[in-house]
Amino acid sequence: DDIVWGLPLIILIIVCGIYLTIRLKFLQIVHLPKALRFMIKNEEDGTGEVTSFGALCTALSATIGTGNIVGVATAIGILAGGPGALFWMWIAALFGMATKYSEGLLAVKYRKIDEDGHVLGGPFYYIESGMGHKWRWLAKIFAFFGACVGLMGIGTFTQVNGIASAVQAFFDPDKANTVSILGNDYSIAIVITAFILAILVGLVVIGGIQRISKVSQVIVPFMAVLYIVVCLVLIIVNINKVPAAFATIVKCAFKPMSFAGGVTASLAIAMQKGVARGIFSNEAGLGSAPIAAAAAQTKEPVRQGLVTMTGTFIDTIIVCTMTGLSIVMMGSWQDGSLEGIAVTTDAFQKGLFFMPGQVAAFILMICLVFFAFTTILGWDYYGERCLEYLTNGSKVSVQIYRWLYILCVFIGPYMTVKAVWTI
Length: 423
Known about the structure:
Layout: H1 7-23, H2 27-30, H3 32-40, H4 52-63, H5 66-76, H6 84-109, E1 112-113, E2 119-120, H7 123-131, H8 136-152, H9 157-171, E3 178-181, E4 184-187, H10 188-205, H11 208-237, H12 242-254, E5 257-258, E6 264-265, H13 267-282, H14 289-293, H15 301-330, H16 341-351, H17 357-390, H18 395-411, H19 417-422
Antiparallel strand pairs: 1-2, 3-4, 5-6
Helix pairs in contact: 1-6, 3-15, 4-11, 4-15, 4-17, 5-13, 5-15, 6-7, 6-12, 6-13, 6-15, 7-8, 8-17, 9-10, 9-17, 10-17, 10-18, 11-15, 11-17, 15-16, 16-17, 17-18
């Protein structure tokens, strides 16, 4: 884990992003206004299963998740990379936008549409068709791990566990009301959460991409706007702390800083945590977003590439920055006794001082629940498409995958946080 998320990945991701940025003549900066216009304006005569905006919302539903609230807090904590990690998240996102554009373009260029209008596309198809048939083994490996990570990694356990932890922390922090299941005591809040989540996920994923897209188009803009508005209110009422926060972020990004208790945040750790959490959050170069992009109703790969690119901009440059800035402004990152969601909750409670602490905590819990829920939906779609490629479009295997997915959602809340992140 340390090797994969260490120097090799940082070099691969950043160098690839820099190369594409130079070859595409800084497209992510020059054409960003055009990309944002295309994002909300659908093509009328394109071919595909969902609108261009629907495909983006499906991709965003999978990328805007616990990483934006919990991941950012973890990365910039005093025991991790410090505030400098946020700067390296920005750098990873800037170059990652060029990578994301390329992924979206290739997805549409090499996608396959069958007689029923069913679209199949993603890295496995552009590896096989773009790089040649002799690379099919690589496409198969990608599809296999994609289906697995959807079922047991990013898609279910981490998100469901995040939701359950947030709900229990708010409604039953002392585990006063418990039930015994297989010899272990669980909070009633966890049991109810597992049951409701499994039902809601089942109602959506059984409807396929059309239903996932429709739900995402409603929830994703709502949840993103709600979270951004709350963060903006926090920043505005504490506006005098903004310059110092930005200065701290940039300073910590380039030189080691010592804090109370002899803790030192080094440049290498700040860079590693920033890039790693940035990739986990915006998924640039991961190969997931192009699976959704391939389903877009479009006839122009370049246009869809630009729309796909806006996903990284929204996820990291806007949403992650809001979280990170709030935490640095309120000094919550310096409390070594806090970790994960508790860091962000502390920042919200301090920053939104004009409202009761429980109200601020409740707002954050609602945002986290929505963020994680949509990620569960998006990754089900990714996993299904990977499985379709592996099984040559077997509808039976996809149905079995959906029911296994719902089962994993149901059992996820009962697992320990350590087990979830190890998997």
